[in-house]
Amino acid sequence: MSAGIAYHRDRTPALEAIRALYAAAPLRRPIHDPDRIRRMFEGSNVVISAYDGDRLVGLLRGWTDFAFDGYICDLAVHPAHQKAGVGRGLLDRALALGEGVQWVLLASPIARDYYAHVGWEKVENGWKLNRDGWNPGSMEEYQAQHAELAAKA
Predict the structure, then answer these.
(1) What strands lie across the sheet with 5-9, from one edge to the other?
(2) Which of 23, 37, 42, 104 is packed most tightly, with the most Cβ within 10 A?
(3) Residue 44: Cβ within 10 Å count
(4) pLDDT tens-digit profile of 127-142?
(5) In 3-state terms, what secondary structure has residue 63?
(6) What CA–CA distance (Å, rounded) separates 48 from 136?
(7) pLDDT tens digits, residue range 6-63?
(8) Main-chain dihedrals φ then ψ at residue 42, nearest 5 degrees
(9) Which segments of the chain does DSSP mark as H helices, in order?
């Protein structure tokens, strides 16, 4: 694991730090709508954060019943800390929350290979219903639109 990284469970980071990390990671989330980001965290029962000093460098958000099922909603790691064990550290802490919990997630296009690399199995039996409303556009558009916020991470 990355030396000097401190992990915290159930301590939701400051809203602006979350928005900046999502912009930098890049994890396409509705960072233009701070109230929606706040509600996303209020409705999650798993929040694990990673700090390098006072700087938020990793974040995992999800839900579980702590007995059978779990869902990872977000796994964001600052680019300067990727490939240093931060993502795995966040996942390991989530996996330790309940023996026998089966975790699932939807991987972003840029992270699909990562999950296979850390031992997750690809599933073919899932279904989704796309959300109405916000559409982040292409990754390039998203990064260009939020470059100033990403620089704050």
Answers:
(1) 5-9, 46-52, 55-64, 69-77, 102-105
(2) 23
(3) 18
(4) 888 777 777 777 788 7
(5) strand
(6) 25
(7) 999 978 999 999 999 999 998 889 999 999 999 999 999 999 999 999 999 999 999 9
(8) -65, -30
(9) 15-24, 34-42, 86-95, 112-117, 139-145, 147-150
Burial class for 40, CB neighbours closer than 10 Å (0-12, 13-18, 19+): middle
> Encoding tokens for residue 136?
């982040």
Cα 63 from Cα 94, distance rounded (Å)? 10
What are phi and psi for residue 87, nearest 5 degrees? -60, -45
Quick: pLDDT tens for 60-114: 999 999 999 999 999 999 999 999 999 999 999 999 998 999 999 988 777 888 8
Report the pLDDT value the prediction gives residue 151, as an integer from 0 to 100: 84
Listed by start position, the domains of the chain span 5-150
Give the total residue count for the chain.
153
Cα dihedral 130→131→134→137 (10° resolution) = -10
Q: Tell me yes or no: is domain 5-150 CATH 3.30.460.80.
A: no
